[in-house]
Fold each of these.
Amino acid sequence: MGITSKPVVFAILSAAVILIGTTVTVFIPLFMPSTQPVSAYIKPYTAVEQEGRDIYMREGCNNCHTQTVRPLRTEVLRYGEYSKPEEFAYDRPFLWGSKRTGPDLNRVGGKYPDSWHYTHFKRPQGMFEKSNMPPYFWLAKNRLDTSYSFKKTTVLGYGYTEAMVKQQLEEYRAKVADENYPSKESRNVVTPLELRKELTEMDALVAYIQKLGRDVKSMETNQ
Amino acid sequence: MSDTGYNYRVVRGFAFSALFWLVIGLVVGLWIAFEMFNPALNLTPWLSFGRLRVVHTNGLGLGFGLAAIFAATYYMLQRLTRTPIAFPRLAQAHLYLFNTVIALGALSLFAGMNTTREYGELEWPIDIGVVTFWVMFAINVFGTLIKRQEKQMYISLWYIIAMTVAIAILYIVNNLEIPISLFKSYTIYSGANDANVEWWYGHNVVGFIFTVPILAMFYYFLPKVSNLPIYSHRLSIVSFWSLNFAYLWTGAHHLMLSPLPEWLQTVAMGFSLFMIAPSWGSVVNGYYTLNGNWDQMRTNYLVKFFIAGITFYGLQTLQGPLQGLRTLSAFFHYTDWVPGHVHMGTMGWVTMIISASFYYMIPRIYDREIYSVKLANIHFWLMMVGQIVWTSAMWIAGIQQGAMWKATNPDGSLMYNFLDTVASLYPYYQLRFGAGVVFFIGILVFAWNLVMTVRQEQEPGKASPSIL
């Protein structure tokens, strides 16, 4: 009768067959240097940027925006230098995405000033009438929850001490709350009065967006 | 319990849970389809596209898909083994836990608890719930198989075994994560490795939920409905093992031209092309089963569901490997072509086969006739038209989008800015929404037909002799 009359043997054999491809294409590459290259130029996210990244994930931005520029002529022309594996060494999870309802964001850091992002997040249609991006003005009304910031950076292996995390948060807060912050006006438009001296979720998201691709740009400048 | 001793209570429970999650998932789908051309519908944070899209995919994939698979599996398992479910109370607990986990999962996604790894977005406490109900299911599958009266296991049981084993491996390996709080965790994988693990999972979870158990239903219900034996047993053996072997190698075709090592992409591309063979093995097996009896397409209302379904499966498994080729991926990836591809599978194959399986199964477990064959035919055509318009609109949109992204002026500069490409797609998005409404009406007819089948008064003389 063969294995079709032996369910347990059949299950074990199925598992074995399934695990061959899995082992070769997933388990073994996990430990190969080519899937985890590192570069001295690529720095981990600061605590604020990481919080911003978590908001990017919470809002599902990855459903419409990719973060990989492919080595294709028009793509490099549109977005910038194509993506390298070492850029993503600190990305847990990866946020490459699978659909471009909106543009790729892998090289967006530094492309626009902070004020651009505050105005755009508030109501994308105010900037681009035909955009279909949802508004995110409400992110500026939420105080940034930093209670897990240190734990997060520890689990992610960024190597910050608790004091460093506190300092990063305080430095960024001081930067955006400063009277001379260049994007102060646009920030004030979306941020309620009582939160202007504090970090909001939108501040963190802007910090994260401005980090994207920045290390690669500085690497190019150095070379 | 019916007079045969089979437990149909849990089958009914899962079948109507599937209908419930199907309607919810489609309402969310229509909502986000509308948001695509009218962002004013992003009324609140939890109604914004980014959060709702995962409610749609998880609600239909895990809610509707799994519930329908559990219903059909508990039915086929008992019939094919001639044995009642081994642990009926465990099966009932499985039903309750399943619905609780899916409801909590949907709420958590609305709230933004999202790991962002496609089709594995649920956070770790929900993952534990999923693994728990999967183990409960597996215990019943293997318990019933071990106690079985029928010595030989039919093809459908092979597919059920493969699914039970594969989903367990995929789900656990992919969701290894370190909790930060009750609502937040980070995956243990990083960067390119994370992408590789995630698309191994993402591709195969679709394979082992939307292909393998649906083939189990196809191989069981088509012969039942048509009264014809499957054309070739040997072909089903070859298809089964080669499908199981090759599927797991193909995940990286989702990562063509990404920073993933090139050899992984190329291996995935090769195995994707190979996948045409086992997929078409089942398609050919289905077509030849009807050899000489094609008049049943006209005379037997359920046969056309199965043949239409396997046809879309055949088209799906040709289109997939082709768009996975590096050069074609360069053009099509990230465009609306891909949702078109996915929805031919889900609307044209999965929902088609599940609908027909339910039309066969539900009247039998209630010991009566279907409420209305006419309504079933209307349901069929609404689904068919809705799906074809939906997917065609997205394929055309995808081709246009891909071409506009690539278009350059004679001096080599880009012809369109990104916003031009977005705005040019709105007519297709509107058409897609309309097609979705047509499909949804078809599903409402389906649900109505099944509910009325259950609620109708039993006509004397129509009932089977065992009741009289």
Amino acid sequence: MIDFAAPGGRASSLPLLGRDVEPTLFEMSVAGRRCFQLRTTGLPQIAIEELIPSAHLNPSTVEIAEVSERDLVAHFTRLSHRQFSVDLGMYPLGSCTMKYNPKFCDAVAALTGLNGVHPAAPASLTQGWIELLWILEQRLVAITGMAGATLQPAAGAAGELTGLLLIRAYHEARGEIRTRILIPDSAHGTNPASVTLGGYEVTTIPSNERGLVDLEVLKRSLGPDVAGIMLTNPNTVGLFEEEIQEIAKAVHDSGGLLYYDGANLNAIVGVLRPGDMGFDVVHMNLHKTFATPHGGGGPGAGPVAVSERLVPYLPGPRPAKADDGSFEWKTTTTSIGRVHGWHGNALVLARALAYITVHGDDGLRRVAQHAVLNANWLRVRLSEFLPAAYDRVCMHETTLSAAALKAKYGVRGLDIAKGLLEEGFHSPTVYFPLIVDEALMFEPTETESVQTLEALALALERIVGRAETDPESLHAAPRTTPVSRVDEARAARMLKATADAT
Amino acid sequence: MADYIPHTTAEVADMLEFLGMNSLDDLFAHIPDALKLSRGIDIPAGVSEPDAAVLFNEFAARNDAAKLLCFAGAGAYDHEVPPVVKALGSRSEFVTAYTPYQPEVAQGVLQAVFEFQTLVSRISGLPIPNASLYDAATGLVEALNMASGVKGRSKMIISAGVHPHWRQTAHTFARGTGHEIVEVPLVNGLTDWSAVDCTNAAAIVVGYPNFLGLLEDVSVARSLADANDALLIVGADPIAAGLLKTAGQWGADIFIGEGQPFGTALSYGGPYLGLFACAEELIRKLPGRIVGETVDTEGRRAYVTTLRAREQDIRREKATSNICSNQTLMAVTAAIQLGWLGTAGLREVALSCARGAHYLFEELKSIEGVVRLSDEAFFREFCVELPIAAEVAIVEMAKRGFLAGVSLAQLCGDSDLSTPGDLSRKMLIAVTEKRTKSEIDAYVSALREVVAS
């Protein structure tokens, strides 16, 4: 029997401290206060006017803020206390894979021998870095079943656009003009946006009643003008596209390529490979599957792995091993070019390799298995009072619907999300995917214990109880957080993006 | 093999039983068997953290560049990052949060980004900042997309003084957008605007200082933008804001910049921080996220990501940018670093960089065969031509403890419009506030030795 007594991922003990407004750095400023300390350079103190022509000098001063080190620390520490994070508690945000971020990987990124390296230092002085990135490329290629990869894209969306440009380069090299990319209606919003920036038109493929791509509609949409299809598998409702082999065959038969949105790779890592499903391009969100911390919204990393036929077009430079065993940077003449100012988000890449090194093939398989186990346990545990939109085995996340609660009590998905905040949990993803009415997408990840899942289930049970007896309290939720619901319309209508705006 | 999975064997068995399953494999039973890996993936077995640490310490030990006194720049600078900034910037509440989708529990990140935006606005001299982009190269791409969206035209005029990697990135993404990019050559290190026809241009882009370190007269670019109804995009060194005119003061419509100098270590080039701000009238086309001030239901000041209707998850294929995640942690760190520097500190850093660079430049005159490429005014970086290959000089200087600079041939490729002729003997040298007079003197002695041998 499971002992449910110790839900480690519940943050309800957290006071999140007081409910007063934190002043801004600028409001804390006192003229003449300072905290910076710099080296004593011993350089001649020549007046700036003697070094730089006056036409270039700013006649006024850019004001920053003037605070003491003590106040600086207090201010940002207090701000940090007004912030939910994975380290505080469960963050079941669907499609975002908010798993525990191992501290070991941060320690790797903190090595001076890694973070103290200038990106333009020559290869002979950066052998450790180039080898590290070369190994990471090989690992990512092995994990996805591809032939080569670029580590440059700084996030998933950057990876998507890079992948689309690779597809474009491939078709162009064959002298084919293809103008359309197919995308399921359940896709992440970045997919269609990337397609447009890649110079293609979007054709939307509807999902069937099982939440999957409608194969017949897909086949009818294919043609000589279709460059490819972008799929997420498992898809954004957390279901596996079971007909993926048929989809791949149909797309390839028509001359198109298949793009794999790796946002949901955590469901299959070590168990399945996109390459074996027939995909030609895969982007990975290292900040999801490989646990690099999300940083409050970046930095991420979105490497792109490709099948053999796309390797010649990969962005350069790429890490390479020379005949003498040394490492160097190389760019092919057929490369589409750079997609990042330097080599990508290198410290994020190093963290990901640290994570992969610790896990190995068996550890990564356990990641997917337990992520899927947790999601299904939660799905079944919640089914009596908060049903899944599609009632069958899901992958690493489960999409529930609050449509019935809305119809009966006027309580929406957003109200449930806000109620969870009061209960010490982060909200699930709400209103996505768009194809599910009042969607609540939970992704527990493999790092939450069953005790935490049970605590989440009990919290949701209480919230559903409140929906019945006291719906108003949910409309007013959350009440235990540093601020209550915010006026989003006002923020947009009377935009104030800086402390200086009036 | 190690992992961070809490489940005990007994718990897994109970959970499977709850699901009516016998094994973890049953969870994947609906997937065609042909797709399943029979022998696992071809990567080494996992190891414990302390075992893995040995491997990563070895990687770190083989990066000799990390041990050198840094005189390399080219868009990545070795600035002071004090312990207080490292400590605050690595607080796990900032590090392990995600995009602030639930503002009630994300006021920490939201307010820090609001403060960051305020600082970007002041440094750029433009009123509308965003919450950051991946890096400055992405900033250029997004600025061009914005200009094309505003002007409905696709011709982009980019000075060859803009960082070569930013230009190369712009060319890559133009494959998708179809932008026609025209690069304007430099003469004596400054943009030769007479060499280009700006008719029908959507944007004119100039670096300030340009990547050779020189101070362009941005007003010429502004006049060209006015004459051709184009947007003026200025890519500026944000440290220069401590002394020099801001992009806004030069009349820029869009400011882009590399924010790495504000608290982010050299990091082998990433993660860095794309700074972006624009004029008021361009706000509806602003790429990326933006945090705005508002109130909660009790009237208290609060922050939230706003103008969301521009973004990809709402506009989908009609969005003008696909940016989702950005570089929030670096933005938060930049706000902390700027708070540490304060008004006086930013000026002191800029002044110290300028003084050190000019001192080094004067001292280098004493070395025979080391020639400065241009006599135009510079800020904190300049380019010299050496009597030997720059790559050789850099390797020799490394033996003497210095990262001497950046080889133009390595940075640009074999040729570039920024610098005519053979690039192999040309080297960019930068000085930051971390370099003392005695270090600079030692550098000069070492370089004298290297070029003479």
Amino acid sequence: MIGFDAILSSFAAALHYESIAIILGGVLLGYIVGVIPGLNRAVAIAIAIPLTFYMSAYAAIAFLIGLSKGTAAGSAVSAILLNTPGEPSSAATCLDGFPMARAGKPRKALKVGLLASVVGDLLATLLLIAVAIPFASVALKFGPYELAAILIFALVFIAGMAGGSFLKGLAAGGMGVILGTVGLDPETGAARLTFGYAELMEGVPILPLVIGTLALAEMFVQLDEYRRNKGASVIKLSHDKADDLSFQEFKATLPTVFKSTGVGAFVGALPGLGPSVGAFMAYGLAKRSAKDPDSFGKGNPNGIAAAEAADNAVIPASYIPLFGLGIPGSVSAALLVGAFMIHGIQVGPLMLRDHPEMLFTLFSGMIVASLLMLAVGWYGLRIFAKVTSVPPHIVIPVVIFLCLAGIQVQGYGTFGLVTVFAFAIFGYFLKKFDYSFVTFLVAFIVTPMLEMNLRQAVILSGGDIAILLNRPIALAFVVFTALMALHLGWSGYRQWRQKRLEASGN
Amino acid sequence: MNFWSGLGVAALAVLLLTWIIPTYGGRGFAVGMHPRTLATLGAWVMLACALALALLSAIALLRRRLAFFRLPELGHLWHQTWPFLFVLGFIVLVDRFPLTWVAPFMIGSLLLLLGERRWHVVLLTAVIPALGLYGLTAHLMRIGVV
């Protein structure tokens, strides 16, 4: 286990000026992306991954984590000033943020949002550090039976919880599993689903897949929506002293911030739920427990604080299953796995054994990112408020160009461009027909690990399923998976029956 | 929507199970698990879920007496299709000419198509990203990465 000196040296590495500059770059870029409506965290990370190819592994991941955190905080700006959330998870911020800004207090609303974001993010990061390491220490003792059972459980859980239909979630997961098996079989060396293309021997290249399905497909969706939503008006920031946030006003929101951070961290730690669920749950809780629930939706600062604290707490908490078990619970966590893979590092409990210094430096970098988020947000408030006026018809062509340039610069050539285009069509249909993208991406990412563990489990057991009786943890997860599938199937059936009854009643 | 997407996914799963995975899914002797097993399992999951989705949607459509098939409006269809054709055309151009040459043309023409008429906005938006890419490529070549 890593010693105290190593922890100190990891903090020193994170506080090195080069490290700070990289994290600052990530936070700044994330803020700008978050502020621009239509660009989201997944698009930003997908486009930024090619930029990190030439960085060291730590710098690349720190940059992407900074970016991820920056987008979460930045998306509140457009939610408050434009009533258009930069990220879907900031939709809850609009409920009170926009009325407060319209009532002549835009700066106050932005500052409440920023401080709640930073506190939520920082506390959830500390929770991640406290929980992930004991989690990973336990997970290191797991064998292939346990890991295979946990991975299958996680996939079913994500399919059920990621929103939308459970059936669509599972179907998307099935597609992810199939694409995850493409390439040379690690045991027999047989080429699987490569269709004779040497480029597919090592599997479907992750970069064209994520850029195509996340960024380029999103731009096609945006182009479709742009026709319908042209011209939104932005609230301008004033220099009015009455619009400043006082310490007393901020202090009054602190209990809500702490409660909402707890909600966000809990939701984030469960794979698949995502920040939107966390933000709305925290908002609902704040409203229910408030003395004046009627003031919510009319510009109550506690509404902004609840939504933003939970939204930002979800992101670090979603890294708990990632660093603890190697299971990415969200799209941004899955993209981080991709970035780790590109740099030759297997993320998960093995990181604690093989790269403990890197793990601790990353944790330290995350704390630095939280603090930089505060500085960037506080001093850049007016600039970011101006960025919200960048129209989507300027953003879309530039992002499409960046998607294709990212592939070209990495030397994927025509094959990469055609792959990115094919995945853009695939991603467009996933979005249009509401198939769970998280389940697809997580299934694609974890399939090699799932296959390796399943294969080892089959070989070790000699095909005898009764061996599970001697592996209580694996057996428990198999039972949980079956119960979960039954529960989700049953609740889906009840919802369908309810809708049918309502339709026949009408 | 659910009915047709369910049928589409089910058709894809059938294609995978009957032709693609058996032909291209990998051959050879394996101890324990065959190279095709996991892909086949994934395709079965897709098929089962998609069929269930199509079936449930069909029942809902029948009960509400809604039409199974509605022709989409041509204008709407064209609006959804042209961005794909535009990017495809751009990919064909990139295959023949350097990206830094094609990029300003691509960004500028898309801006014009989206209704931007201020020449300075078109010019700056088209040129700045291409210049950035040129600088990055030159730097990467100088340090020997590309």
Amino acid sequence: MPDNSHSVKQLSVQNLSVRFPTVRGTVCAVNGVSFELSQGASLGIVGESGSGKSVTARTLMNLLPRSAEVSGGVEFEGADVRRLARERVKHFWGVKMAMIFQDPMTSLNPVKKCGTQISETLRYHLKRDRKTARHEGIDLLNLVGIPEPKKRFDQYPHELSGGLRQRVVIAMALACDPSLLIADEPTTAVDVTVQKHLLDLLDRLRKERGMSLILITHDLGVARRRCDEIAVMYAGRIVERGKPEDLFEDPRHPYTDALLRSMPRLNTPIHSRLEAIGGPPPELINPTEQCSFAPRCTLAQADCLQSVPQLSGVIGMREIACFYPANTKRGRRALAKNRARGKTAAGLQMSARRHTSG
Amino acid sequence: MAGSGDGSLRSEGDMLLTVRHLSVEFPVGRKRLLYALSGVSFDVAEGETLGIVGESGCGKSTLAKSIIRLNQIKSGSIEYQGRNLATLRGDELRRVRPDLQMIFQDPISSLNPRRKIRNVIAEGLAIWGDRQGVWARNHVEELMVSVGIDPKLGDRRAHQFSGGQCQRIGIARALLLDPKVLICDEPVSALDVSVQAQVLNLLEDMKIRYGLTLLFISHDLCVVRNIADRIMVMYLGKVCEIGDAKAIFEHPKHPYTRALLAAIPEPAPTVEVAEGDISGELPSPIDPPQGCRFNTRCPRATEICFIEEPLITQLGDQDHYLACHNPVIS
């Protein structure tokens, strides 16, 4: 993996917050997210539905609805992305920064040929003529490993399988040779064998082109193998960030810890009981000033309910937003205290969970 | 792989459900047929959980639907308690239906959005008509409690619940008529990891509490590994490998099973990661390959695989059955 201290900083997100006013109150989708990405690196953003990972990506890509209230700064290769958005700059998104989405069927236009959709990008952004765009389009299909690219170029999306469609989407995103690719759950809609092919492809392209990658996924296993660094999100905040091996082998945030424990694994015995995360999902509408995981956390103490822990630690190594990190002395003491009391400070019954971190 | 024959049927023991040579074909116009299932044979003992894995399009869901007779069966038999479900009609079929219930992948769309969930769960009682009144109301509430839904929320509708809660409601509905067999078609695929764990635990609890036999369909091998006693691997409407879960995961013999185990993000230690790189696309079930159906993508395919279809045979005397001409013997 690249050494962060020497490589060039490419993307810097500072204290990004996104709010959506709704009739039921303001939805705080992203609450003060900060991260940096260096040229050629890959960052995995992991979290469950509603954790704000997709909204973060869409903010970078300027794809939020008008009603969204955004604050904070996004800097990409020296340019202020939010200013570019205000000025409605044309040839930035799709050229410097590109994105691929979860469901290839909905991100492709069903009434246009695959080739037309790829060459459209080339003709609009790079002003290629029809003939050059066709040649380059076929080259791109070849690059993403589509067999018989010439034939596929003139086919419609419904004529392709799910894996091939996602490859077409990747080809579209790569058309203008972006320096950052954001992949939002790129393999959720496909089978495991296809998933492996697609992730191998993204890996290869990233290395060949020196492209940076933000891989958004709910599957911790996917992020583990493919990213230099992983950020775990919960309720719109990054709760833990670090190298995959550290994060998986020695999780510090109680949420990461609980998430890993709740996953079924190949090496556990059959019918072993999974440790589900108790308590209610996070409140995103008008949240209270507390650690958002506290109501479900087995380590929660009184001060977790009074203020929001900030992300701290060594940048590039390991950062945690928790007062009582799991697998530390402090965390173990908090757990022992809650066990003795029978419930956590937030009122979660301890007896329901037989064995947890600490 | 992708073999035929009933070699996968166990000789000893009483089976609750025995499927023999089941074939399902769908007409797709111009007199062509889509071969969804071709000669699938397997059996399930009482109280057992059979995990069914395979890529999309391999016939997992068609199999589930065929067992509860939601689609036409071309040939073959499904024996359940001395009756052949494949040929039952009318009232006889109606009487056996409560015994076989199903839960579906998308928990929200499988509940009627316009009805109160209390009535969604209780619909089976209304249909049967012989169990009504106070007893029925108590029974519904009892079930709601056992799946972890507060009975006070019974007057709400599906959209007021989260995905995990909707799946619990779906499970309660399936359990209402006291089924023997519960068919779960990708029950946790649409759920988040933490909710997935809750639903899997719930299914295990319900299995023990109500004495269920589960058919558990999933594309997630880790989930299947956790819940299943036996595993059946399917490919393009055929059975590749079936047997004890431990045997399948620790000593996979079929090249396709090995490919699946190698392709998951954290591959199984028993296989090489490179084995997950099976090339090409799933062939069309309208015109499946001759011989072994996996021959277009199999790294071990030889001449015979293109001519002759492998039969399912037992490996020694273990609970491990395989359909392959060139199995991986390690």
